[in-house]
Design a protein that fits this description.
Layout (H helix, E strand, L loop, with lengths): L6 E5 L5 E2 L25 E5 L10 H5 L20 E2 L2 H7 L4 E5 L9 H15 L3 E5 L3 H13 L2 E7 L4 H9 L3 E5 L3 H15 L2 E2 L6 H7 L1 H10 L6 E5 L4 H15 L8 E7 L4 H7 L26 H11 L2 E5 L1 H15 L5 H15 L9 E5 L7 H5 L12 H8 L8
Parallel strand pairs: 5-13, 6-7, 6-9, 7-8, 10-11, 10-13, 11-12
Antiparallel strand pairs: 1-2, 1-3, 4-5
Helix pairs in contact: 3-4, 3-7, 4-5, 7-9, 8-9, 9-11, 12-13
Bound molecules: pyridoxal-5'-phosphate and zinc ion.
Length: 417
């Protein structure tokens, strides 16, 4: 690392550190180990030369924790600084007086993916590139589409044709070029890699582009600032590729390095039963991540055959002293309503998996009732209304007559029949 460099990129596998212009994506030394469709090899972590001396209190201060030459390169949207909710009703219901919900549904495109899109768009502008491509289960593409629309750039996105309709419509409304892929997310990922090599587009694929992890770390910078002077004991994160989890770990790690926090909180990875690669690897004595070629879950944003950031995600879980939990598919759907009724936050299935994961972790004794716990709610329920509909009963329509209301509620009390 030279003295003039604001940051370097360190490979999480071989530990080698590179100047930022040595690679826009993965570690050049580890890239040869890459197998098609496999875990992403040589994922790079941003290492800032110096970190600010105090917790951020807003976007400008957050930018000083980012590898960003110029904050004006960020998309002109209100990304991040989402509320950390105290959820009194849930606290009472669960007997957890220090429970919090980080409501990332409140991002501009309604998911945590906006955090990654913001930094990737800024880096593209730094490089002088105007076209960015991404593979996505839906939200990463939607976030990129929104950020590019706000910044006057072009987004090209590869998304399973089976993605929830709201996500596809959102992508198209933002004016991105949608390439619906007749296949699962993993096929879209490989196709996007090939297309970027062929056409020279800047690639935002998760973990493959190091600024996706770095952008998502802003969630934990905010949690720390919003909780100060307290510090979380545990954070529950829904996991597919494992990039949000590693982003959350990275944010807390940077704060610890800066002397602004005591330790990594225990990270609890919540996976849905239909897409269990990380959970299985944590349970496996050899910690091998196996391909789940039949991955299928109502939590579409978590459905991956091979978690691309599997290596980093397992490292971060271990370093934090955390664990993984598996949520049955029907508990994912039930959690949408339970969270909404208990907190007023309407989550898509992947995000509700974090809340369901909290309940599983409590049942298994991984989290104590008195601990300070944050559940990261990563995406809005409006993105997949069909999934939420499975958990509610819609009453039949009534005639616009007061007798019809009486038929529902009975005669009003104290007024006779
Ligand atoms: C992408 C996504 C996740 C999972 O993030 P990974 O980095 O793939 O683990 C969770 N929830 C929502 C809403 C998402 O869009
Ligand atoms: Zn390497």
């Amino acid at each position: 690392m030279t003295a003039t460099m604001a940051y370097c990129l360190r490979c999480i596998e071989c530990g080698k550190s590179w100047e930022p212009d040595a690679s826009r994506y993965v570690c050049p030394a580890c890239a040869a180990a890459q197998e098609p469709g496999g875990l992403t090899r040589g994922v790079l972590a941003v290492e800032l030369e110096s970190l600010p001396p105090r917790l951020p209190d807003g976007l400008a201060a957050t930018c000083r924790f980012l590898p960003l030459a110029d904050a004006s390169l960020l998309p002109p949207l209100a990304i991040g600084w989402t509320p950390l909710l105290e959820v009194p009703a849930l606290r009472t219901a669960l007997g957890m007086p220090h429970l919090y919900v980080k409501d990332d549904t409140r991002n501009p495109s309604a998911s945590t993916k906006d955090r990654a899109a913001a930094l990737v768009v800024a880096k593209a502008r730094e490089y002088g590139l105007s076209t960015i491509a991404a593979a996505s289960t839906g939200n990463a593409a939607t976030a990129l589409a929104a950020a590019c629309a706000a910044s006057g750039m072009k987004a090209i996105v590869f998304v399973p044709a089976s993605a929830p309709e709201a996500k596809l419509v959102q992508i198209l409304s933002y004016g991105a070029q949608l390439v619906p892929v007749d296949g699962p997310y993993d096929a879209a990922f490989e196709l996007c890699l090939a297309a970027c090599q062929r056409y020279g587009w800047y690639n935002r694929n998760t973990a493959y582009n190091p600024y996706t992890i770095e952008g998502k770390k802003t969630a934990s910078l905010e949690i720390a600032a919003q909780l100060a002077p307290s510090w979380p004991d545990a954070v529950v994160v829904p996991v597919g590729d494992g990039v949000i989890l590693s982003g959350v770990a990275k944010g807390f790690r940077d704060l610890v390095r800066a002397g602004l926090g005591p330790r990594l909180p225990r990270l609890i990875a919540a996976q849905a039963a239909g897409s269990p690669a990380i959970y299985d690897a944590v349970r496996d004595p050899a910690r091998v991540i196996r391909l789940h070629s039949k991955a299928a879950s109502v939590a579409d944003s978590l459905t991956v055959s091979m978690p691309r950031n599997g290596i980093g995600c397992l490292m971060d879980l271990a370093e934090s002293g955390g664990d993984a939990v598996l949520v049955p598919e029907d508990e994912v759907v039930a959690a949408i309503g339970a969270l909404a009724r208990g907190s007023g936050v309407f989550a898509e299935p992947a995000a509700a998996t974090a809340y369901a994961g909290l309940l599983v972790a409590r049942r298994q004794g991984l989290i104590d009732a008195g601990e300070r716990v944050v559940v990261l709610i990563t995406g809005s329920g409006l993105k997949d209304v069909r999934a939420a509909a499975r958990g509610v009963v819609r009453p039949p329509a009534v005639a616009p007559l007061i007798e019809a209301v009486d038929a529902i509620f009975g005669p009003p009390a104290g007024r006779g029949a």
